[in-house]
Design a protein that fits this description.
Strand content: 15-25%
Number of helices: 8
Shape: globular
Distance between the termini: 40 Å
Number of domains: 1
Radius of gyration: 17 Å
CATH class: Alpha Beta
Strand order of the largest sheet: 3-2-1-4-5-7-6
CATH superfamily: HUPs
Largest sheet: 7 strands, parallel
Structural class: alpha/beta
Order of helices and strands: EHEHEHEHHEHEEHH
Number of strands: 7
Length: 209
């Protein structure tokens, strides 16, 4: 079973890394792939070039067993859609391997409006990362989409390659890449928000100035 976490990672920070590590350890992924997006669909385009975003990710996860950077989206033209990414992973990994798409609670609330959400659930499980104890009613469209798919036991994710939704408690680290970039543009330190190895690369490349 593998996990997949997509994002611009512009730059990657501890708000990405700590919840991902929680999932890696709690759910027993054989690996967790960080997939940087190329052309975003519903947000501003990344500021840092693809080369540097990959380099920052590789620096951030160096030495962490189970973490891996997967740059397939950066080789694809057009908008980066989770459906296309998962199709590509299925073609590589086969139909039987459980794949878990990780997303935050805010992203999940808008999942019914994603590109081909039902087909995404045909390709992967969803792991919704949220703060411990968080709960609440789902919007009607999302409730219909998710009906009968939620599970509480992580072991059930291994019983099928796709189609289930697990709400996973993770450490909440309230950091946003926009805040990190604003600090760097203001010539202020982003230490303790971003790994030191990533800050060194940012300084070397003169990013976010």
């Amino acid at each position: 079973m593998i996990g997949v976490l997509g994002g611009t990672f512009d730059p990657v920070h501890f708000g990405h890394l700590r919840p991902a590590l929680d999932c890696l350890q709690s759910l027993g992924f054989e690996e967790l792939r960080f997939i940087p997006l190329n052309v975003t669909v519903h947000r501003p385009q990344p500021e840092a070039a693809a080369f540097w975003r990959v380099a920052m990710l590789e620096a951030a996860i160096a030495g962490q067993p189970g973490f891996r950077v997967d740059s397939r989206e950066l080789r694809r033209l057009g908008g980066s859609f989770s459906y296309d990414t998962l199709q590509s992973l299925r073609a590589e990994l086969g139909e039987a391997l459980p794949i878990c798409l990780l997303l935050g609670g805010d992203a999940f609330r808008g999942f019914a409006d994603w590109h081909r959400p039902r087909e995404i659930l045909d390709l992967a499980h969803l792991v919704v990362m949220q703060r411990p104890g968080a709960s609440g009613p789902l919007a009607p469209g999302l409730e219909v989409l998710c009906g009968g798919r939620t599970c509480e036991d992580p072991r059930r994710l291994r019983e099928a390659p796709s189609g289930r939704i697990l709400f996973q408690a993770v450490t909440q680290v309230d950091i946003a890449s926009t805040r990190v970039r604003a600090l760097l543009r203001a010539r202020r330190s982003a230490r303790y928000l971003v790994p030191d190895a990533v800050l060194a690369l940012i300084a070397e490349a003169g990013l976010y100035r």
